[in-house]
From TrEMBL:
<keyword id="KW-0547">Nucleotide-binding</keyword>
<keyword id="KW-0963">Cytoplasm</keyword>
<protein>
    <recommendedName>
        <fullName>tRNA(Ile)-lysidine synthase</fullName>
        <ecNumber>6.3.4.19</ecNumber>
    </recommendedName>
</protein>
<dbReference type="InterPro" id="IPR014729">
    <property type="entry name" value="Rossmann-like_a/b/a_fold"/>
</dbReference>
<dbReference type="InterPro" id="IPR012796">
    <property type="entry name" value="Lysidine-tRNA-synth_C"/>
</dbReference>
<keyword id="KW-0819">tRNA processing</keyword>
<dbReference type="GO" id="GO:0006400">
    <property type="term" value="P:tRNA modification"/>
</dbReference>
<feature type="domain" description="Lysidine-tRNA(Ile) synthetase C-terminal">
    <location>
        <begin position="368"/>
        <end position="440"/>
    </location>
</feature>
<dbReference type="InterPro" id="IPR011063">
    <property type="entry name" value="TilS/TtcA_N"/>
</dbReference>
<dbReference type="GO" id="GO:0005737">
    <property type="term" value="C:cytoplasm"/>
</dbReference>
<keyword id="KW-0436">Ligase</keyword>
<dbReference type="Pfam" id="PF11734">
    <property type="entry name" value="TilS_C"/>
</dbReference>
<dbReference type="GO" id="GO:0032267">
    <property type="term" value="F:tRNA(Ile)-lysidine synthase activity"/>
</dbReference>
<comment type="function">
    <text>Ligates lysine onto the cytidine present at position 34 of the AUA codon-specific tRNA(Ile) that contains the anticodon CAU, in an ATP-dependent manner. Cytidine is converted to lysidine, thus changing the amino acid specificity of the tRNA from methionine to isoleucine.</text>
</comment>
<dbReference type="GO" id="GO:0005524">
    <property type="term" value="F:ATP binding"/>
</dbReference>
<dbReference type="InterPro" id="IPR012795">
    <property type="entry name" value="tRNA_Ile_lys_synt_N"/>
</dbReference>
<dbReference type="InterPro" id="IPR012094">
    <property type="entry name" value="tRNA_Ile_lys_synt"/>
</dbReference>
């Protein structure tokens, strides 16, 4: 059996394979995935490939077992190893409040990615028609330029060598080579949104408005991809130059167009939150608004988080940042606390060290404690004659915002003695009248610092 030249051209053009690669062929048993499998098999010796066939039984059709058996037999006939899994798509959808389509996709990709850790690159059978249908589906739902760019030949560890191959070309190849496949009867039922687009919407538009509608959608996707990649390069450049220690400097965004600012915000949120699932368009628009017009404000986000701006700094704040630690009473010797290990040595001698202070023991008022910051905290930094807000001190010293809640504060019954390990309070410093010296050592700080 010969490889389809268009398939091989894509493999070479997009550098999808190297000699001795391990690949996973994701096969449902339908025409598209069988085309993928046979073409990978046709170039097996050319690249000395190790091919694993992966199949997901979604557990929703009476013929699902038939499809699984067909994939098992086809793999055996080709001398290929196969991994299968049975899932309950509808139960998963209900549990996670997803559509059946979304649930099926999540379950498939979870299975494929687990396999990829041992068995190599994930090859998927998405074709040109799938690409066009995806673009139209996103237009109907509402999307931006990123959504219009749709799927890529290679992205995020996924390989799609058929994105420019039309469905009629796939069927033609299969018929010419007398290759068997199974037909998923639900493909012809309008029970899913994508099926309605494939069976009703696209044929209607082709018949009444534009016979080359699929080609138009593909051109739109290609143009959008080029535009998106250009914008993304500018966004990445801004992030690279202005994002550090979980804080984004937004000074340069105040004069930018709202669209560009929104894309920077989206990327910043992805970096901070991992993904932006659950965030609304309004969340993004509100964030752009505070960047352009506020020096201090916040936008509430899902999952007990907010995005805040302070002067030119944008950052994420989560509910656990306001958790209070202590106060915990300190005693002579080693004190193991959740903010760090503090050693107290009374009647000691004056010493200078990065993680230690020497204070006038007789200036202590009451007992010693360790805690974290509190709203309204003030202290008199060493060398100064007036109190300073702890919040302002953190800002002036450029102490990472994400670490401020875990900075150990050593205090007595009345005042802050040491913002450790940064600054001693002038009120407790050793002077010529000092008779007793106490050393306070920060032996080990919480790892979040």
């Amino acid at each position: 059996m010969n490889v389809d030249n268009k398939f091989l051209d894509n493999i070479i053009q997009f550098n999808m394979l190297e000699k001795n690669d391990k690949v996973i062929a994701c096969v449902s048993g339908g025409a598209d995935s069988i085309y993928l499998l046979h073409n990978l098999y046709a170039i097996k010796e050319m690249f000395n490939l190790t091919i694993l066939v992966a199949h997901v039984n979604h557990g929703i059709r009476d013929t699902a077992k038939r499809d699984e058996d067909f994939v098992l037999k086809t793999s055996k006939d080709l001398g290929l190893k196969v991994k299968t899994i049975q899932v309950n798509m509808n139960e998963y959808a209900k549990e996670h409040k997803l559509s059946s389509e979304e649930a099926g996709r999540n379950l498939r990709y979870e299975f494929f990615r687990k396999l990829s850790k041992k068995h190599g690159k994930i090859f998927l059978a998405h074709n040109a028609n799938d690409q066009a249908e995806t673009v139209l589906q996103r237009i109907i739902r509402g999307t931006g330029i990123e959504g219009l760019s749709s799927m890529s030949f290679v992205s995020d560890g996924l390989y799609r060598p058929m994105l420019n191959i039309r469905r009629f070309e796939i069927i033609s190849y299969i018929e010419e080579n007398k290759i068997k496949y199974v037909e998923d009867e639900t493909n012809y039922q309008t029970i899913y949104a994508r099926n309605k687009i494939r069976l009703n919407v696209i044929p209607y538009i082709e018949e009444h408005f534009n016979s080359g509608f699929i080609d138009s959608l593909l051109r739109l996707s290609e143009i959008s991809t080029e535009n998106y990649l250009y914008v993304k390069s500018k966004v990445d450049e801004y992030i690279k130059n202005n994002y550090k220690n979980s804080v984004l400097n937004v000074k340069g965004l105040k004069s930018e167009r709202d669209y560009f600012t929104s894309e920077v915000v989206r990327q910043f949120l992805r970096l901070e939150l991992g993904n932006i699932d659950g965030l609304s368009k309004q969340n993004i628009l509100d964030t752009v608004e505070i960047i352009k017009n506020s020096t201090s404000s916040r936008v509430t986000l899902p999952k007990n988080t907010s995005i805040e701006i302070s002067y030119d700094s944008l950052f994420i704040k989560s509910e656990d940042e306001d958790v209070e630690f202590g106060p915990i009473e300190l005693s002579e010797g080693l004190n193991d606390t959740e903010l760090g290990n503090i050693r107290i040595k009374s009647n000691s001698s004056y010493r200078v060290s990065d993680n230690m202070i020497s204070i006038d023991q007789e200036k202590i008022k009451g007992k010693l404690y360790i805690r974290n910051k509190r709203s309204g905290d003030k202290f008199m930094p060493f060398g100064m004659k007036n109190n300073k807000k702890l919040k302002d001190y953190f800002i002036d010293e450029k102490i990472d915002r994400t670490k401020r809640n875990f900075v150990p504060i050593i205090c007595d019954d009345e005042n802050i003695i040491w913002v450790s390990p940064y600054r001693l309070s002038e009120m407790y410093s050793v002077d010529r009248n000092t008779r007793k010296i106490m050393n306070i050592i920060l032996e080990e700080i919480d790892e979040r610092n």
